[in-house]
Amino acid sequence: SGSYHVISAEGSVEVGDNFTLADSVISTHLNGESVTAQLIKREAGGQLRIRYKGTALECRVLPSEAAELLDIMPVKVPIDTSRTILSPMPGVVKAVSVSVGDK
Questions:
Q1: How far is it, in rounded angstroms, from Cα 81 to Cα 86?
Q2: 32-67: per-residue pLDDT in tens?
Q3: Percentage above 90 pLDDT, the chain
Q4: Which of 77, 76, 59, 13 is nearest to 50 (CA)?
Q5: Do residues 39 and 50 lie in contact, with contact meaning Cβ atoms separated by under 8 Å?
């Protein structure tokens, strides 16, 4: 089997390619050392949450072509909902029956 070369701000590591992201427990090799980690969460954008030695780690898995373009991708700005009434149940507010001074 092959391996992946993972690069981060802290350095780089060689990860053995003997698992899939469908596995809930990953047993592989990092720089030749055997490690086991738990895959807690997977999201569509490549975001993963992995638990290793009791620590939950957030990471992202992308093809190298996509990773190269990551720096030039625009940041999605959250929508300002400060002036919006949010409800846990869907629907439309048709009327609010109050008058000035009501408590």
A1: 8
A2: 889 899 999 988 878 888 898 999 988 887 777 887
A3: 8
A4: 59
A5: yes
Give the whole-angstrom CA distance, residue 83 versus residue 102: 22
Check: CB of residue 74 under 8 Å from CB of residue 61. Answer: no
Which tokens sit at 80? 């300002």
Higher pLDDT, 12 or 27: 27
Q: Where are the beta strands (DSSP E) in 1-103?
A: 3-8, 11-16, 25-30, 33-42, 47-52, 55-60
- 12: Cβ contacts below 8 Å, ≥ 6 apart: 5, 6
pLDDT at residue 1 tops 70: no
How many whole angstroms separate alpha carbon 23 and alpha carbon 50? 11
